Every structure is written in structure tokens, then in C-alpha cells.
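Sample entry (361 residues):
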Amino acid sequence: MRPVRTVAGLVLGTVSVCAALAVLAAWGVARCSGPVVGVAAWEQRRVAVLLGGEPVCPEVIEPRRAAAYLWCRIPVGLLGGGTLVLLAAGGWTAVVGLSRWLTGHDVDGMGPTWPIVGYLLTAGLLLLFLDLAGLAAVVELERRLVRRFLGPDELARMRRRIDELTATRSGIVEAVDAERRRIERDLHDGLQQRLVVVAMLLGRARRKDSAELYRQAQAEAEQAVEELRQVAWRVYPSTLDELGLREALAQDAERSPVPVHISGDLVRRPAPAVETAAYFAVREALTNAAKHASAGRIDVEIGQESRSVRITVRDDGCGGADPNGPGLAGLARRIRALDGHLSVDSPPGGPTRVVAELPCD
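Predicted structure, serialized as C-alpha cells:
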């Protein structure tokens, strides 16, 4: 399908040269900018859909830049049309030469002329190769023209980046505040209450000199130590720094009530912030699957490319996870702050698929 879309895109680009000339003439005579911007936006959509270009919002296209783009696009469109004509000629020549070679027919009734057949076949194949290279060059030139003239300029890109950083900064502050509130609840509702019980048991044991009360106080103290260890682990696992992402996730898999299968590993350790964000993304997905999805199995896949880390968590639960919920939304903000992306696919009835993509650096 990709070659068909490419050829269709170049054919439409050749035909649209006439429209570009018409609107440029109107622009020069009446300074009518609407058609110029409209044709430029249509050309951008053509390149994006058929030639694999990047989408650009029509609102950011300025009339002068649109006119400059159309002037530069006219020779490119004609070049694409000429390349398609040569492609058809090369294909026809190669087919004729191949058919003559396979059937052994003569050429124009002059008897077997194998050298001529060989020349036809060779010329046709050579034209096909050159035309295909030319088509690739024209497609790349179309993309470059769209990026150069219709994409946002440097100032617009800087403003967009500032807006993104402002939004992610606010998001990470909200995520940190939510995490602090969660830690406070864990300490207040769990550990603090248990320590109060220990103090009460020790007071009663001192008054009554009861060995049984001392044993109860010791048991409560041991439970308090374990809860404190759990709170510290939820804040930040020391294994992540010492042994890396896979080992830290392996410990989480051992604690999980649902069987967890981990595959893949990191080729090299990324930046600590990236590794931490990836770890918490997986842990939140494991927690949601165990608590809300009624999952029977969870698969965690760790992958790394030259510039990105990709973590995929799948479960066979009932689905319906809300990407805007407090847990997943906080993770998404944290990952966006690192120029990453979190996607959640959880249709009703399942399965659920959570993918976190983060830059390595």
C-alpha cells in the first residue's frame, strides 16, 4: 500500500501545480490570501497522508510563507510528474524486453535479435532503478519543503516548548504533592496507630509486670518496623540504585499477589530520573492490575533502543482503567516532564496495555 500511496501523492502533486499557479496569480493581483493558505494546507495534508510527512495545523500557516511554499513546490511537482513518466517508460521498456526474451519472438519481423532484446531489458531495468531513486528524492524534497515553509518557525517552536515545560512543571508539582499526601496517610493511618498501640501495651505491661503484654508489644513493634520498611520501599526502593530496573521490578513481582512475568532488559542504564520514572510506571500498573483488574497474569516487557526506553505492561484483567485517574494521571505528568509519553489501552472487558516511552538521557 505504501508504494501506491506514494504514486498517488505524486500524481496529485503534479495535478495541483495548476491550482498553485492560479492562486498565486490571484495573490499577486488581488492579494487574496485565503486560497493561497487553503491550497498550502491541502498540500500539507497530501504530503502528510500520502507521503509520510508531519502534520501541521493550518492555523500556523502564514500567507507569505504559504505563497513561498507554493512557488517552490511548482518545480518539485513538475519534477515528480516527469519522474512518473520516466517510471512508466522504464517499466514498459523492461516489460517489452522481458517478454521478448521469454518468448523468443523477433523484433519488428526482422528475425531473432537477442542483443536488441538484451539492450531493451537492461535499459528498462536501469531506468526503473533511476526512477525509483528519483521518486524517493522527490518525496523527501516534498517533506522538506513542508517542514521549511509550513512548519512553525524557531520562535513558535520556542513558545510551544515553553508552554510544554510550564505545563509539565505544574504537573510534576501536583504529582509530588499527591505523593506526599499519600505518604502522610500511610504514616498516620498505619505506622502511627501501631506505635500508639505499642506505647499503650508497654504502659500496661509496666504497671502489671505482664510478660504476655511485653510479648504483644514486641510483636506490634516488629509489625511497625515492617510497615516502616514498606513505606520506605514505596517512597523509593534502594534496589533500583544498587542493582538496576529489572532487579527492582523482580522484587515487586515477588510481592505481587498476581503472577508477574518479566522479559527483556536494558542494554545500558539510562539517567537515574528516567529509570525511576520507568520503575514507578510499572509499579503503578502492577498495583492497578492487582487491585482493580482481577488479573490472573501480568507481563512486563523491557526494551531499549538507541535513544529511548520502552516499558510495556499487559494484564488479562477486566480492563476499564481510567488514564485520568489520580495514579495514572500523576505518572503521565511525571513522564511528560522527562519528554516521555504514557499510553493506556484498557477497553472494557480487557485486556489492559500500558506503555511508557522515555528518552534514555
